[in-house]
User: What shape does this take?
Amino acid sequence: MKRVAVVAASLAFLFTAVACRAQQTQKQGSLPNAASAAGGGGDVNATMKNVNYRLTDKIIVHIVSLRGKLTPKPDQIVAFDDRQSFGIDVDSASVTLNTTSLTNDLNDYVFVKPDAPFKKLTATIEGDQLTVKGLLVSKGGIPFSTTGTLAVTPEGMIRLHTTKVEALHLPVKGLMDMLGLDTSKLVDTNKVEGVSVDKNDLILDPQVLLPPPQLRGRLTSIKIENGQIALAFAGKEEKGSLQPLTNTCGARNYLQFQGGTVRFGKLTMDQTDLVLLDMQPADPFDFAMDHYKEQLLAGFSKMTQQGGLCVHMPDYGKINRHAARHGS
Assistant: This one.
């Protein structure tokens, strides 16, 4: 109970000190993410470094570095409690995805619909090639395996170029070539957003293959490094490159936000100046948007001389769940 009182008092102080305002009127309550009368809270500049960003509990993207903006939907503001309220417009980004997260993404997000052509997928990497195994639902649940290389198309899409296909553990690519067949004639991807087929190759849209918030940018590179898929993004336009934000909290692994308006919980910060930083910087910052409140309760905050806020948070995977729930 003592810790609860301390946390409550600290939040009350920060509420006043950084000019946050509570959104508790009946009108605002009926529109929980409504923006100000001026027409929205505006874009929020963002810099991220060495962050394991949990898009879901099972889909984790490692952000090596990212510079861009959190862009709210029209007439809305960025709300940490609503991942659909904003997208991330990238100026530059370097991210990696391991095969465990890719497997979970394929099953839980990309091909989750009942009528999806593939089910029970697993992804593995060997050398510079990606192998995806699963069941071909449209052909009665036949087990299949496809192996290929990754490349970027001129349009910024991901091309999985097929080098080997097996069905029922038998090689079939040579037979398909002999019969004049290709993957596009065997697999219907019309009902799967962000996936199409070009002859024997799968074409994947990197902007819609992961759960929100949507990462919007131009894919410039994709390759396999150290058993993971490494992707590099640039802004959609060459001009207007953003300058990196000045790190005022001395953080090594962090998410930093400046400008615009951000809502977290019942508090709203205008002219945002907020850094979420790793209390244990020896390894990447394990940050979970769906569980950020647990991380807040298990950490502590400090105000900067400029009225900003440095929030020190433990890795999500290292939180003492009982202590976080009971505030002790």
Observations:
- Residues 2-17 form the longest helix (16 residues).
- The first strand starts at residue 21 and ends at 22.
- Residues 1-39, 173-182 have pLDDT under 50 and may be disordered.
- Helices lie at 2-17, 26-30, 99-110, 173-179, 183-186, 292-297, 321-326.
